[in-house]
Amino acid sequence: MKTPTKAAGMTTRTDQALPQGWTGVVLAGGQSTRMGQDKALLPWRGRPLLEHMTALLAAAGAARVVVSGHHPRYQGIVDPCPQRGPLGGLHGVAQALGDGPLLVVPVDMPGLTVGLLQRLVQCGPARCVILARHRLPMRWDLDDAGRTLLRNWMQDPSAPTSLRAFQQALGVRELPIGEGDLPKLANCNTPSEWEALAP
């Protein structure tokens, strides 16, 4: 496996303000094999979990919200590389959208809060920002360099396959979080995890 390196031109910008009008992205293209059913459609407080997550991004200030995954009802952007996990979903989004800041969340993190999302948005200019010890949610300043890097990785069988490797290649910045924030960042991948989180 190749060691990830920063693509040419990928320097962290410190002299520009964060552009207005960021886009929210819900990653909902997984197979949900451990859950045994589509996680995106699980009921959460009277509506599908996917709708809860899109509403959360809107409440945090997203100018628009898009869904990554095969969800025709929600105009989902189909993963062009469905076996590549989150990177495959991000690749599809990157090809479909123009440059600008994205705030990416997984569909299976219902405890996530507006406050945590706004912390990512408001932390200042950076190419990639995450909360400490968590790969998602993630703010990604999408540009052609990042788009090209991801496209090249998808075409190269020997390229890294992890979201962590991609974030490192972008030059990730990690924000500290408190112990009280950890329950808000819990994923639900199995029926038992869902029962522990479901209201």
Description:
By secondary structure, the protein is an alpha/beta fold. It has a single domain (about 25-195), classed as Spore Coat Polysaccharide Biosynthesis Protein SpsA, Chain A (Alpha-Beta Complex). Helices cover about 30% and strands about 15% of the residues. It contains 6 helices and 8 strands. A 6-stranded mixed sheet has the order 4-1-5-7-6-8, sandwiched between helices. A hairpin with a 2-residue loop joins strand 2 and strand 3 (about 45-50). Helix 2 (about 85-95) crosses helix 4 (about 145-155). The protein is globular. The termini are far apart. Mean pLDDT is about 85; it is low at about 1-20.
Give the key terms.
199 residues, alpha/beta, Spore Coat Polysaccharide Biosynthesis Protein SpsA, Chain A, six-stranded mixed β-sheet, two-stranded antiparallel ribbon, 6 helices, 8 strands, 29% helix, disordered N terminus
Quick structural summary:
This protein is an alpha/beta fold.
The sequence of SSEs as H and E is EEEHEHEHEEHHEH
- Reported by name, the CATH topology is Spore Coat Polysaccharide Biosynthesis Protein SpsA, Chain A
Number of domains: 1
Largest sheet: 6 strands, mixed
Strand content: 15-25%
Mind telling me the CATH superfamily name? Spore Coat Polysaccharide Biosynthesis Protein SpsA, Chain A
Q: What average pLDDT do the residues reach?
A: 86
The shape, in one word, is globular
Question: How would the blueprint of this fold be written?
Answer:
Elements: E1 23-27, E2 43-44, E3 47-48, H1 49-59, E4 64-68, H2 85-96, E5 100-106, H3 114-121, E6 128-131, E7 138-142, H4 144-155, H5 163-170, E8 172-175, H6 191-197
